[in-house]
Known about the structure:
heterodimer; A: alpha+beta; 5-stranded antiparallel β-sheet; B: about 120 residues; alpha/beta; 5-stranded mixed β-sheet; 4 helices; about 45% helix; globular
Amino acid sequence: MIMQPLQELAIREEHDIVMARSLVRESAMAIGFGLTDVTRIVTTASELARNAFRHAGGGIMKLRRLDEDGKLGLELTFEDHGPGIPDIELALQKGYTTAGGLGLGLPGTKRMMDNLDIQSELGKGTLITVRKWRKG
Amino acid sequence: MAGESISVNRVRDILMVTMPRDPGDATIASLQDQVLAAMEKYEALGLVLDISAVDTFDSFFARMVDETAKMVLLMGGRTIIAGMRPSVAITATQLGLKLDGATTALTVDRALNRLETARQGR
């Protein structure tokens, strides 16, 4: 699989969540995703960028265009050095929240994307990777 | 944009808010105070929130809209969310978003008609 590094964005302030959405929208459209998938991917980016900002005080978002024998996709990673997620299984349950939100971000992300991988270490940080493949 | 803001407009006794395409968290959060202040000031019947330009409706946005609708309801008003795009409706359902405090309408026109009908029984 060819993985080209595309771009990265530091999420430091609230407005960077808007920047993250804008950058991801641009990339997803360039890869040729349909409007509904673009919306799924951008919404996922918005949830994960906000998580990094609110729970970890910020982080880095990276975008990579994927190419597996001509099948195109987009990979997003969100890395932070925040408190980490104590129980990933619990965080993936609908309605579980620690920041007064709806607790829909991570479980919703899992439904909207093709792959979701969460690596987290308490006191060290969290690395979340999501992928979406273009159909057809 | 960072400096963008929303404005609450009044048409007779109905409040109208048109959300921008990609509002930041601060802009979304400013909705509550502005709408509630306008409800009191104009003794409004309710709020029509036009989201036809919005292309990303995430859990934060949904929570703010739902809370605002519930507060408007406590004040005696109704909230109608108008113009949700198909791609947004699909994504909102997959995310599991709930908008218990508001009703929805396909267009702003239909939302206004419904509020007008509600006025008859006021």
